[in-house]
Amino acid sequence: MIEIKDLKASVEEKDILKGLNLNIGPGEVHAIMGPNGAGKSTLGNVLAGREGYEVTGGSATLNGKDILDLDPEERAREGLFLAFQYPVEIPGVSNLEFLKASVDAVREQQGKPALDSVQFLKLAREKCKAVNLDQSFLKRGVNEGFSGGEKKRNELMQMMLLEPSLCILDETDSGLDIDALQVVADGVNAMRDANRSFIVVTHYQRLLDYIVPDYVHVLANGRIVKSGGKELALELEEKGYGWLENGNENGAE
Amino acid sequence: MAAEFIAQQLELAKGISPLAWLESTNERGQQAFAEATLPTRKTEDWKYTSLYNLTEIGFANSAPHAQAHAPVVPGLQANRLVVANGELDTSASDAAALELVVRFRDARPEQQEAIRELLGNVKGERGHLFADLNDASINDGLFVLIEKNQRLEHPLHIVYANTAGDAPFTVNTRLLIALEQGSEATVIEHYAGDDTVDGKQNNFTNAVTEIRVGDNAKLVHYRLQLMAESAFHIGGTFIDLQRDSRYEGFHLGLGSALTRNDIIVNHNVGGSHCEMNGVYVPQNKQVIDFHTCVEHKVAHCTTDEVFRGIMNDKAKATFNGRIHIHPDAQKTLAELSNKNLLLTNTAEINTKPELEIYADDVQCAHGATVAQLEEKERFYLQSRGISAADAEVMLSFGFINELLNSLNDEALGLWLRPQLAKRFGRDDDLSAQLSGEL
Ligand SMILES: Nc1ncnc2c1ncn2[C@@H]1O[C@H](COP(=O)(O)OP(=O)(O)OP(=O)(O)O)[C@@H](O)[C@H]1O
Ligand SMILES: [Mg+2]
């Protein structure tokens, strides 16, 4: 599915990713944990192609295709999806129009027929319901005035509409109440299938009770410093990151 | 050309058949206009807007109004009046709407009195030479009086339509709106083009509107300038706010080769609130100039003014927003924001907020920006598969759509939105369909 090799990236001339390796097979769920500022969101942004996140070495191939030279929209159409840690508000742009434009673009790439507005609305309403958002949210500006949790659910709804092959969830669980957490977990679990993979970035072991990962990795100091099964999350919860090689800012290089 | 233009327009003004009871207004106007000199680039307040193209054209007086095409806003529940080539077209207007207005020409003596009490008095000395020209030419007009505690259920929609054709003509229109104590009304001034014909519509509309909002009264005022791209439009809107009154204005500039709009608001007594939004989206070689001036003469009044513009192609816009806080205007709250987007590097914007404060206990803020689209927002859209170019269009449109969303009339919003969207080459069937479905 995605193969990340020795990936190095910098932001504003500061090296953030320092040779990151990660292999994710089809259908797998990988959790990434790690201290604040370790580079987890940077990894998501680099993979999604954000301006200002400069790749200085390494490679990332999605379904056999090198994605690092593609524009962000091309990566999205290739099936990469990043649910943002902090989704932006875009006042004046209707959520519904935005979703339609997005779905149109991705479906076209996938060779699927375009949806007319009636079909699209039906689908959008369905997904709203699935993430427990009232359909009045479709009419509002993109994330405009949404609460933290509503923004996260809007991200999840987009993921459901676009049916990507690689989903990166950057702290989608942060700021969610317990019921919403269940909604998000159910949404993700419903989308799990043999051809879709997930990277779930989280600080909380609890999420992994709901979304059970195949692997857990610790990202610290711009590298994956430890990998294991889901029991690693429990161990981290108990011991923190200090005991790991490079596990904190002062860790040995 | 300048002197010839003055002479030409003066000649036209003298050619009207006057109303006896307005002759002193005509005389005063003719005199003032005869003495006027046409502004040049060196004239303060006209620095960025040249009248050259206007003065190049030989205008006649407006012809009879036989076939003026007045557009209909689908779904708009309103009392509709049509003014064709400057003349009220009673056959095209709603009977109920005709009940709401007094035509100067038909005014009974006591109505003449009421008109004279307002006419020119709201405007005062504030108008420039085109307001004088309007006085000089005035022999008709509309007077809207909303009586004490009356609430107008549906908006009054006044469509100013001009016939198309090769022969250029001048139209001077005059509108007086008076809201008595405790009354409420919505008035839509709609300057229309004729989109059913191709070819030139180089008529020149010189419109003056005087508004008085009485104690505790509220006016919602939409002024939509949607004339043909070959037309000329000069507008003066003068607003007096009495005690605890409220003015909510929306000013749209889309039409005309050349638009100059002056909007002057006076907080006269105290406790009044002015909320004014404006949007301008010139394209091709259009020139749009908004000059707003809010006079805080007294204490405890508030102003919230937001104008946004997007300039495309070789278009040019000017926004000059003045807020003047007089020494007695303590406890004033005033905010002015003007944001602009340039879509090409041949488009031009001149923006100048002017805050003049002579009182010390006030809260004022102003800002004017020429913005770039937000990188974060663009990336968000791109990360969902939307191309960079489409993302720019969506974001530009969103920039002004935010203000359209504040319109209280849904039908009007639905009608205007695609016209604005079209300026960005968007297929807007979708949004209409979608909003219809929801
Ligand atoms: N646009 C940016 N400009 C400057 N520094 C940045 C930028 N983006 C990231 N960084 C820096 O890169 C480092 C890694 O940040 P990143 O957001 O990837 O951390 P993270 O692992 O996601 O942390 P958290 O758990 O707090 O979300 C931080 O030191 C951060 O300040
Ligand atoms: Mg992060």
UniProtKB/TrEMBL annotation, chain A:
Sorted alphabetically, the keyword list is:
ATP-binding, Nucleotide-binding
Task: Output the PROSITE patterns linked to this UniProt entry.
Answer: ABC_TRANSPORTER_2
Domain annotation ABC transporter: ranges: 2-246
Q: Name one Pfam family in it.
A: ABC_tran
Superkingdom per UniProt: Bacteria
Matches recorded under InterPro entries: AAA+_ATPase (IPR003593), ABC_transporter-like_ATP-bd (IPR003439), FeS-cluster_ATPase_SufC (IPR010230), P-loop_NTPase (IPR027417)
GO molecular function terms noted in the UniProt entry: ATP binding; ATP hydrolysis activity
Coiled coil ranges (UniProt) are none
Determine if Nucleotide-binding is one of this entry's keywords: yes
Write out the similarity annotation: Belongs to the ABC transporter superfamily. Ycf16 family.
**NCBIfam families, sorted:** sufC (TIGR01978)
From the Swiss-Prot or TrEMBL record, give the protein name. Answer: Iron-regulated ABC transporter ATPase subunit SufC
Q: Give the classification, highest ranks.
A: Bacteria, Pseudomonadati, Pseudomonadota, Gammaproteobacteria, Oceanospirillales
From TrEMBL, chain B:
Family assignment? Belongs to the iron-sulfur cluster assembly SufBD family.
**InterPro entries documented for this protein:** Fe-S_cluster_assembly_SufBD, SUF_FeS_clus_asmbl_SufBD_core, SUF_FeS_clus_asmbl_SufBD_sf, SUF_FeS_clus_asmbl_SufD, SufBD_N
Question: Residue ranges of the SUF system FeS cluster assembly SufBD N-terminal domain?
Answer: 21-158
SUPFAM superfamilies per the UniProt record, alphabetical: Stabilizer of iron transporter SufD
Source superkingdom: Bacteria
Its BP terms in the Gene Ontology are: iron-sulfur cluster assembly
Q: What name does UniProt use for this protein? A: Iron-regulated ABC transporter permease protein SufD
- The chain positions of domain SUF system FeS cluster assembly SufBD core read 169-399
Q: Which organism is it from?
A: Thalassolituus maritimus
